[in-house]
Amino acid sequence: MSNPFPVSGNVTQMKGSSTLIAAQAAAEMRASGIDVIDLSVGEPDFDTPEFIKQYAWEGLEKGLTKYTATAGLMEFRRSIADFYGRQFGSAVDVSEIAASCGGKQALFNAACTLLDPGDDVLIPKPYWVTFPEIATFCRANSVFIDTEATDLVLTPDQVAGAMTDRTKLLILNSPNNPSGRVIPPDQMREIVEICSKRGVFVLTDECYLCFAYPPAEPFSLASLPKMSRGLICVAGSFSKTFAMTGWRIGYTIANPEWTKAMVKLQSHSATHPTSFVQYACSKALQDPEQMMNSVKEMTAEYERRRNWLIPELNAIKGFRCSMPEGAFYAFVDVRELLGDAFKTSGDVSDHLLREAHIVVTDGEGFGAEGYLRFSYATSMDNLKRAVEGMKGLFGERSRATAPRH
Ligand code: PLP
Question: Are strands 371-375 and 329-333 parallel, antiparallel or unpaired?
Answer without folding.
Answer: antiparallel
